C-alpha cells in the first residue's frame, strides 16, 4: 500500500503533461527554440574572440546548451494541476496535505522525484540529440563524466531543498507571488542558468560562493566543460554535500513550524 501511495504521488505532475499531447508538443518546440537561440547567441558572442573569462567558444556553447537542458529537470507546469504550495495556501486546500495517508513532507519529496525523473527523460533526449548533432562537446574523459554525474545528482538535491524553502515561505507569507518570482529569478541568476558566473564581476562571484545556488548547476556544468579541473572536484563535491545536509536540517525545521500555521483560507 505504501508503494502504491508513493507511485501515485510521484506521477501527479508528469501525468498533467502526458495526458495533454499539445502541452508536450509545446514543451518540445520551446526546448528546441531555446537550444537554437542559445547556440546562436554564444557562437555570435565568440565570433571575434577565442577565449573569454577562461572559456573557449565550444566550452561556452556547451555550458549554455547544457544549462537549457538541465532546466527541464524541474521545469514542469504545476500550476495547471493546481498543486503548488502557493495555490493550496491561497485556496485553503493545503490542509488536505495533512489529512492524506502520506505526511506532507514525504508527499512533496515523492512528487518532486517524479517531476525530476520525467524531466530527466527530456534532458537526456535533448543531450543525445545535441551530442549527435555536434552542438555540444562530450566529456573530456570517463573520470570527468563520472564526476559530472555525481555533481549533477548533488546539485539537483540542493536544488530540491532550495525550491522547498521557497515553497515553505508560503506558510508565512500566504500571498507572495511577486516575492516567489523574484526569488526564482535570483536562483536562476546565481546558479549560472542565464550565463556562466565567470562573466560577472569578482564581487558577484565572491558573494555567490557563500550561497547554495551555484552548487545546483554552475558547479556540475563547470566540471563538465573543464572550467573546474578534476583536482578541485573533491572540494566542490564536499561543498555540495555540505549544502545538502544544511538545507535538509533547515527544511525539516521549517516543516515542523509550518504544521503549526496550517489554516483554511479562501475557497
UniProtKB/TrEMBL annotation:
It holds the Pfam family ABC2_membrane_6. The chain crosses the membrane at residues 117-136, 142-166, 178-200, 233-255. Keywords: Membrane, Transmembrane, Transmembrane helix. The keyword Membrane applies. InterPro entries: ABC-2_transporter-like (IPR010390). This is Putative Involucrin. It comes from Streptomyces azureus.
Amino acid at each position: 500500500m505504501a508503494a502504491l501511495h508513493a507511485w501515485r504521488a510521484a506521477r501527479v505532475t508528469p501525468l498533467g503533461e502526458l495526458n495533454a499531447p499539445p502541452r508536450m508538443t509545446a514543451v518540445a518546440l520551446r526546448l528546441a527554440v531555446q537550444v537554437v537561440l542559445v547556440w546562436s547567441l554564444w557562437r555570435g558572442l565568440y565570433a571575434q574572440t577565442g577565449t573569454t573569462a577562461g572559456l573557449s567558444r565550444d566550452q561556452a556553447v556547451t555550458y549554455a546548451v547544457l544549462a537549457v537542458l538541465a532546466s527541464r529537470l524541474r521545469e514542469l507546469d504545476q500550476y495547471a494541476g493546481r498543486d503548488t504550495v502557493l495555490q493550496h495556501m491561497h485556496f485553503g486546500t493545503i490542509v488536505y496535505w495533512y489529512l492524506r495517508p502520506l505526511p506532507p513532507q514525504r508527499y512533496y519529496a515523492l512528487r518532486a522525484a517524479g517531476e525530476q525523473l520525467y524531466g530527466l527523460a527530456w534532458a537526456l533526449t535533448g543531450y543525445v540529440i545535441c551530442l549527435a548533432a555536434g552542438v555540444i562537446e562530450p566529456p573530456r574523459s570517463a573520470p570527468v563524466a563520472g564526476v559530472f554525474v555525481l555533481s549533477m545528482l548533488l546539485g539537483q538535491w540542493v536544488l530540491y531543498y532550495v525550491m522547498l524553502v521557497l515553497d515553505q515561505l508560503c506558510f508565512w507569507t500566504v500571498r507572495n507571488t511577486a516575492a516567489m518570482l523574484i526569488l526564482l529569478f535570483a536562483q536562476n541568476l546565481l546558479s549560472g542558468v542565464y550565463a556562466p558566473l565567470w562573466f560577472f564581476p569578482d564581487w558577484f562571484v565572491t558573494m555567490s560562493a557563500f550561497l547554495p545556488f551555484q552548487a545546483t548547476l554552475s558547479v556540475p556544468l563547470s566540471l563538465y566543460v573543464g572550467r573546474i579541473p578534476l583536482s578541485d572536484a573533491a572540494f566542490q563535491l564536499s561543498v555540495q554535500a555540505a549544502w545538502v545536509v544544511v538545507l535538509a536540517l533547515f527544511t525539516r525545521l521549517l516543516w515542523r513550524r509550518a504544521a503549526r500555521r496550517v489554516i483554511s483560507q479562501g475557497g
